[in-house]
Design goal:
Elements (H helix, E strand, L loop, with lengths): L25 E6 L6 H16 L14 E5 L2 E9 L1
Length: about 80
């Protein structure tokens, strides 16, 4: 499960954006594995950006069905979720 080649630890990247009015919610993304190439990573980033922009991310309040699936081709590579 580790993205690091030399350790047994997983990695977490936190990206923040300060808003003037503040925010009580965040968008969380979990990938099944490290993207195999820059193309895969870019495709995933584009999906995340569009889902946030279009307000199409599943919300944690929607129930325990998981997040919005992220795809590369037909393969689900991760999930994204909007939560407090």
């Amino acid at each position: 499960m580790s993205f690091s080649a030399d350790t047994d630890m997983g990695e977490c990247l936190v990206v923040g954006h300060k808003q003037k009015d503040g925010s009580a919610r965040g968008n969380f993304v979990v990938l099944k594995e490290r993207p195999k190439s820059a193309l895969v990573g870019s495709t995933i980033a584009t999906q995340i950006h569009r889902s946030v922009r279009d307000k199409k991310l599943r919300m944690i309040e929607d129930g325990p069905m998981g997040g919005t699936p992220l795809f590369f081709g037909d393969e689900v590579v991760g999930y994204a979720l909007d939560a407090p």
